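__Record contents__

***
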Amino acid sequence: MEIHTIGGFNEVGKNMTVVKTGDDAIMFDAGIYLPAVIELQEEEEQQHAYSEKKLRSIGALPDDLILDKLGLRNKVRAILLGHAHLDHIGAVPYLSYRYKAPVVGTPFTTTVLKKILQDDKIKIPNQIKSVNPNSTYTIKGKKNYEVEFINATHSTIQTSMMALHTPEGIILYANDFKLDNTPVMGLPPNYQALRRIAKQGVKALVVDSMYSGLETKTPSEKIARAMVEEVLMTVENQKSAIFVATFSSHIARIKSIVDYAKKLNRKVYVIGRSMNKYISSAKDVGMCPFYKDVFIGSYKKQVEAILKKVSKNRENSLVICTGHQGESGSILDRLSRKQLPFEFTHNDNIIFASKTIPVPVNIASKGQLDKRLKKSGVRIFDQVHVSGHGGREDLRDLISIVNPEHIIPAHGSTQQLTPMIELAREMGYDVGKQCHLMQDGQVLKL
């Protein structure tokens, strides 16, 4: 068996791993490297679908061309997607046509993908197949393989760990997860399935190790819900505007914001194209309990009309919008530059139900956004958030449950992945023989 670490092993993003077994290859994830795209958008001052060539030239796509050189391109039998974040599915519109393989994910993940394709006017020849969480899909190749979509918890709904059953043992791809036993939406992690595959024998675990250096267990989303409540109830008496910026894909977080806004008797407006994309996808799969409680605006005229209403009726409105990373062209970025028909005034409230993703372009953009906002005299509540990624103790628990033969840390720079190697050593793994620090473009032969 060969495990090809194509992307996400030198950086946070452009995730892709390919497993070759016999005459078949199975691709896990096809993500984009978002910082490169954000920089490109800032240079060109517009947001649109770019060409594959352009995205390859700026290093935004995983280098899957290596599969051509290795003679694996025509052996790829399926493209399996773990969840709906762009650093896991964003490259599918640009790469999938190269493979005669279906694209498979949970209903929310595939619905988001279809909306991205529709918005960017891209057609792909691949079949897109939906598999419910805690269900199995059969991959047809020279041999047939079962892959289980085992429910996991993360900062978006219907996230899965994927267990590929091969004659050599099970490969468990657990790229982006935390062990949240009390999620605000969706099911808790399926420990029963993890214990079962452990008994069957897990050959290798490819695991999200971005926060392996943090000696913690990541708190449940219910803690973030309590933080949202705390802040919103603090600002309730003021006759001022409330704007909340958060991840468009974080449906559970948006639900908490809407729930407490209703307690404040504020009308909830959701603005931004990506907000509309993810919320309407959640509605389409029956996982948007707040859909009737919000007014959504995604196009220019809708956004402007909503902001004019909010401006006249500040004390009865709450706006959920894009721009928590200070991204160029986002709603909050344009508001801070006075490019939209709403002006912040003294004591307006801006809540960041998010954390700045620790890459230079985001840190710089968010810093500049905060400076512009503070000039208006607004109150800023930052980091009303808990992460969607497991810390060191979540990773320890997962390894204890699954008991894999081999561990491959994923989803970060070498610096972020190295503590995972140290944890594996602590747990009795032989580094180099059983725990493997990989880089983009390498292959591990088992």
Remarks:
- The radius of gyration is 22 Å.
